[in-house]
Every structure is written in structure tokens, then in C-alpha cells.
Amino acid sequence: MQEAINQSWSARALERQINTLYYERLLASQDKSLVEAEAQQNTRPLAETAKDYLRDSYILDFLNLQDKTYQESQLEQAIISNLQQFLLELGKGFAFVERQQRIRFDDEDFYIDLVFYNFKLKCFLLVDLKLGKLRHQDIGQMDTHVRLYDEQRKGSDDNPTIGLVLCSEKSEAVVKYSVLAEQKQLFAAKYLPYLPSENELKRELERERAQAVEQLQQQGLGDE
Known about the structure:
Layout: H1 2-7, H2 11-19, H3 22-28, H4 32-48, H5 50-54, H6 72-88, E1 94-105, E2 108-118, E3 123-131, H7 136-152, E4 162-169, E5 172-178, H8 184-191, H9 198-223
Parallel strand pairs: 3-4
Antiparallel strand pairs: 1-2, 2-3, 4-5
């Protein structure tokens, strides 16, 4: 409470620090400046820019790293890179389009973590990575992305866009496809044979966590 007062944290910034165990990491760290700098870097935008109110920042502490000095941006890129490679290697028609692709609605910008096109299904796949429990608003946000994408990017001969939400709370991964109500029959009949199952993606996300931990720990040892 005192730190929130001293730092003028917003409610969202305070929630972030609680979820990332900021207090515990600060007490346990031998180099407190690294933890404090990381906290300042990631909470300042939450109070200053509209973009960060519209889009959750990525705090991938579910990787359970022994060394808490790793930067969140490194963890994010490791997970997203692994996801990208996994989908491309499935052999089910996926082609990579873009990372952090921006779509605009009125005066608001939305950013999509990964965008693929499946040339067998002739449709786009939007992927978002989230921290914590899967919330109704996460699916709702992806539904919004899908509708906007259909309006702004989908070609006349493309099939409807589908979304994929990946969430992780500590060591537990949750995966959900986001399909608009009017497209559920098409999704079940034609899309599923070409898409990895939710359970398959969950196992892959858990495997990627372990792989990212190993990669980053090796980098840390190499830098010492």
C-alpha cells in the first residue's frame, strides 16, 4: 500500500505488481535496482498512454524462472517465436503474416500478437497471448478483433476469420478458439480438421514454457 502511494500507481499498475510478486522479488533480489527498474518501466505506461488501457501488457511470469531478473520482453518474444514456429511446422497450410499487427476502429488501435493465413482453409487466424485466468472479456476482445478483421482485411473470396486466445496462470495453460456465433457450424464442419486441437496447443504451450526457460537461462549464463 505504501509503495502504491509513493509511486502513484493506478489500480491496474498495482494489480500488475501483485500478480508479478513484485514485493517478494524485491525482498529476494540481491540487485534491487533491476527489479525496481523493471517495475517502473512496465507500470509507467499504464498510467500515461491510452494504448495500454486498451491492451493488456504481457507479464509472462508463468515461466517460473529461477532468476527473476529476466526482462518480460525477452520472455514474450521467446514464447511468441516458439508459437509461430510450431504452427508453421504443423504442415496444415499455415503461412505467417505479421506480429503485433495493428487494426484501427474509429480512434482506437488494437494490436494482434500473431496473424497467420491458412491457404487450405482460405482464412486468417488471429492469435493473442494473455496472462492469468481466461476471462470472458478476453474472448469478447478477440471476437471484436475477428469482426474488425473481417470488415477491414478479409478478401471477398476468403472464409471468415477465426481467433485463438492463449492464457497462462503460473504453470497452467488455457487455450480457446474464438468463433463468432454465426460461424460455429462452419468451424466444426470445415475448420477443425486443419487446426491443432485446444489440448494439443495447451501441451505445446507448456512445452514451450520449459524450452523458453532453458533458452533464457543459457543466455544468462553466457552473459556472466
